[in-house]
C-alpha cells in the first residue's frame, strides 16, 4: 500500500516552510503527500508580510474531503493561528479516527514573526497536545507552552518536556537548534524515558523551514510504519543533511530554505 501523509498547516508563498516544505519532505522520503491549508502567508526569505486565515469551517471541509478518501498513515500539524481553527482540527481528527499525529506547535517564524495568536496557545494545550503521538517544540516554543523561561540546561529542557507530556501527549521532542555549543541536541521523551539525538551544529544562514521539515519527516516515517524512535532518528539525519547542503542553493536575500532534495540535486 502507498504510504500517505497529510500536512495541516499554513502556506509559505516563498516555498521554504509550511505546506510547501512538508510536501517536499514527504516526496523526498517516498511518501505521497496531501494537504489541508489553514492559512495563507505573504512570505519570503526576509520575513512574513501578511497572514490570511482560512475559516475554520473550510479547514474542516478540507479534512473531511481528504480523510474520507485517502488511507492516511500519519498527519503533521503545523501553523494553526486561531483558536477556532485549532478546535476544528481537533474535531476533525476525532471524526476520522486519526491517531498518528505529529504536532509542531508553530508560534514564531525563523524571521521572528509571530504566527500564533496569544489566545490560541491555551486552545493548543487543551485540544491538540492530548491528541498528539509526538509534539515537537523548539526551545522558545517549549518555554511558551510551559510558561517558563527558555531552557538553558539539559535539566531544564527535560523539565519542560515532562510538563508538556503531562498535558496528554504520548511523546515530546524538544529541539535544540536554538541552543548553543558544538552540538545540536534534541531530547525525545517517551514511555521509556529520554533519548538524546545529537548532530553537529552547522554554520550557515539557510535554515528556513527546519522545524516544518523535521516534523514532516517524522510523519513520513510514521506513515511508512516505522516505530517512533526510528522515525525521529531518521528525520534528524535527513534534516541535518538538508541543512548541510543548503548553501548549495541561492534562494532569496534573507534566510534561505534547507535543501529538501539534497539526495538528488
Overview of the structural elements:
Helices cover 36% and strands 22% of the residues. The protein is α/β, with parallel strands linked by helices. It has a single domain (4-248), classed as 3-Layer(aba) Sandwich (UDP-N-acetylmuramoyl-L-alanine:D-glutamate ligase), CATH 3.40.1190. A six-stranded mixed beta sheet has the order 3-2-1-4-5-6. A three-stranded antiparallel beta sheet has the order 7-8-9, with helices on both faces. A hairpin with a 2-residue loop joins strand 2 (32-44) and strand 3. The protein starts with a strand and ends in a 21-residue tail after the last helix. The mean pLDDT is 93.
Largest sheet: 6 strands, mixed
Count of separate structural domains: 1
CATH class: Alpha Beta
CATH superfamily: Ribokinase
State mean pLDDT (0 to 100 scale): 93
Strands side by side in the biggest sheet: 3-2-1-4-5-6
Overall SS class: alpha/beta
The helicity comes to: 25-40%
| DSSP strand count | 9
Provide the low-confidence segments as ranges: none
Which topology does CATH recognise?
UDP-N-acetylmuramoyl-L-alanine:D-glutamate ligase
Q: Over all CA atoms, what is the radius of gyration?
A: 17 Å
- Content of β-strand: 15-25%
Amino acid at each position: 500500500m502507498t504510504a500517505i501523509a497529510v500536512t495541516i498547516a499554513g502556506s509559505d508563498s516563498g516555498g521554504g516552510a509550511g505546506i510547501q516544505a512538508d510536501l517536499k519532505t514527504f516526496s523526498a522520503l517516498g511518501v505521497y503527500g496531501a494537504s489541508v491549508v489553514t492559512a495563507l502567508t505573504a512570505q519570503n526569505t526576509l520575513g512574513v508580510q501578511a497572514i490570511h486565515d482560512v475559516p475554520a469551517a473550510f479547514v474542516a471541509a478540507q479534512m473531511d474531503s481528504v480523510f474520507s478518501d485517502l488511507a492516511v498513515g500519519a498527519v503533521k500539524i503545523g501553523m494553526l493561528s486561531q483558536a477556532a481553527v485549532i478546535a476544528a482540527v481537533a474535531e476533525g481528527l476525532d471524526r476520522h479516527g486519526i491517531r498518528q499525529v505529529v504536532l509542531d506547535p508553530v508560534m514564531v517564524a525563523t524571521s521572528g514573526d509571530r504566527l500564533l495568536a496569544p489566545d490560541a496557545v491555551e486552545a493548543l494545550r487543551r485540544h491538540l497536545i492530548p491528541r498528539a503521538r509526538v509534539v515537537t517544540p523548539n526551545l522558545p516554543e517549549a518555554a511558551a507552552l510551559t510558561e517558563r523561561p527558555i531552557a538553558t540546561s539539559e535539566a531544564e529542557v527535560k523539565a519542560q518536556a515532562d510538563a508538556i507530556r503531562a498535558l496528554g501527549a504520548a511523546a515530546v521532542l524538544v529541539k535544540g537548534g536554538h541552543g548553543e555549543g558544538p552540538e545540536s541536541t534534541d531530547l525525545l521523551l517517551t514511555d521509556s524515558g529520554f533519548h538524546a539525538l545529537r548532530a553537529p551544529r552547522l554554520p550557515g544562514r539557510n535554515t528556513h523551514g527546519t522545524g516544518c521539515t523535521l516534523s514532516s519527516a517524522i510523519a513520513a516515517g510514521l506513515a511508512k510504519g516505522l516505530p517512533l524512535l526510528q522515525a525521529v532518528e531518521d528525520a534528524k539525519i535527513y534534516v541535518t543533511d538538508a541543512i548541510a547542503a543548503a548553501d548549495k542553493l541561492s534562494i532569496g536575500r534573507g534566510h534561505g530554505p534547507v535543501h529538501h532534495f539534497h539526495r538528488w540535486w
